[in-house]
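**Tokenised fold:**
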Amino acid sequence: MSNPQTPPSPATPDLSDMHPDDWVARWLPPSWGPYARLCRLDRPVGTWLTLLPALAALVQAAGGWPTLWRLFIFSLGALLMRGVGCTFNDMFDRNFDRQVERTRFRPLTSGQLTLRAAIWFVIAQLLVSASLLFAINAYSRWLALALVPLVVIYPLCKRFTYWPQAVLGAAFNWGMLMAWSDTRNLVPWTAVAMWLGTVLWQIGYDGIYAYIDLRDDLKLGLKSVAMRFGEQGKRWIGAMYAATLVLWVAAGAGMGLGEGYFLVMAVIAGHFAWQLSVFDVHKPERGLRLFRANMQVGVLMIVAALAGTVL
């Protein structure tokens, strides 16, 4: 096991996702750091990947620029609910995480926090998240409540299915459905198609990420799409990305979006092709880079929505 303070050998990439010299260590009080890491404030990529598709859906639902109030509420909701999901994940997986190279230094596995402290913390996060219910309409409140079970059960799915990333994708992108319910008080088939496409997109990029843990998951008896895809990972992920594009293009056509939307979809297709050219099931250290690169896809989703509505 490598020391987290010592740079790894070039021949053995360090896959740990905890970095002791980041902004959390430099700027936050020591007692706050473990909580910030537990809800992943130190790694905002997941928050952006939750928020960006929801912002694109807000643009589509509004037929242009959404209100600043909705932008604020959905941004705060993405930050809070991502933190809730990460906290539940680490609570359920604490005994597994200490045996996985990527997660062995997380707050609960390293003893920086107790389980009791994590429980109180997730309750506090849920209470703050619940306050946002007063800022959305009744339809969206019911959808928000329906999201909670998905967030809670996701960490358990890896015990019994090879498709936990599908559950994660459904939960991660739930805000897309709520964007329509709160803006239009309905969720049309086109919104559902966009959401389903985003779920498949997440299975693809989170599948790439899952190869980082594949060796440890096999040892621990945990499941993931990486285990299901195996050596055919590039083919499977390519199929997920292709299906994503089909659904997004069909949804855009159903919404009557302008040609600018479809031009940006072509750019996204090129980005997916680049990801597949870099991805290698035998080089899992590339997974984090490709995972982060999907923020660019999220930004392009917003650009496409604006190009199809405002331009």
Remarks:
- The CA atoms of residues 209 and 288 lie 6 Å apart.
- The chain has 15 helices and no strands.
- The mean pLDDT is 91.
- The radius of gyration is 19 Å.
